[in-house]
Amino acid sequence: MRDTAGETAGAGRDSTDFQAFVVGRWSRLMRTAYLLTGDQYAAEDLVQSCLERAFVAWRRVSVAQDPDAYVRRIMINTHARRYRKGLKEYLSRSDEPALGRDLPQRGDDMAQAVERSDLVTALAQLPFRQREAVVLRYWEDLSETQTAAAMGCSVGTVKSNAARGITRLRSAVGLSRTSTDTTHLTHEGRTR
Question: What's the predicted TM-score (pTM) here?
């Protein structure tokens, strides 16, 4: 005879744990999704799809060594599937407010906010894998090993894609060399 009361209690705890995970990570997931897709609605769809998959596998995710890495990998895989299907992505400036936009931190002056906006626009011009590498490596502040795990590739591939991406960002029209310095790419202003 099965212990359905125990299973129900376990399912309720899993649901509560998942809800706490989502509440604690929502803004970061949205920012990452926005930087990958460039559109608020596409980012919301990507996060929703990612969280649906994470919920289905929540027992495995919750006991994983790093649940954030597990969910980040789900997001990258989901985005890659959409990209391979040829869905058009729109990464451009928009006048409407976006939930996933990286907002200026305290102490930022207007010039830094404009540079950040220009940087996001230049990021839109990067090829898919370079954009992934730059977003994960510098905005999400992951190590090369963590980025490689999230992208499903080797550390060397991460290094080359990130380097090419940074080089293209530095050569983007309207960006000064200092605005694409990798220390400006981190979302909390940490230096390397």
Answer: 0.61
